[in-house]
Amino acid sequence: MTTLKVKEMSCNHCVGRIGKVLTDAGIAHTIQLEDKTVTIEDSSNVAKAIEEMDDIGFTAEEE
To answer: Domain HMA: where (predicted)?
Structure first.
């Protein structure tokens, strides 16, 4: 399990966009808007998750 910080995530629309792209990529995750974090369940998917979020305009960094 790896937690990523997504500073640009500021609303439920952001959560929805990130959730959709990760789900579509088959990446199990949990999103916490209040903390601006996305937890990736399988750490082997972290690089792919970061890339998927980057493709839709969000910068994710490991905490």
So the answer is: 3-58
Q: Is the dihedral of CA 49, 50, 56, 59 positive or negative?
A: positive
Q: What is the DSSP string of 18-63?
A: HHHHHHHTT--EEEETTTTEEEESSGGGHHHHHHHHHHTT--EEE-
Count: domains in the chain: 1
* pTM for the whole structure: 0.93
Range of the domain at 53: 2-62
> What pLDDT band is residue 24 in, cutting at 50, 70 and 90?
very high
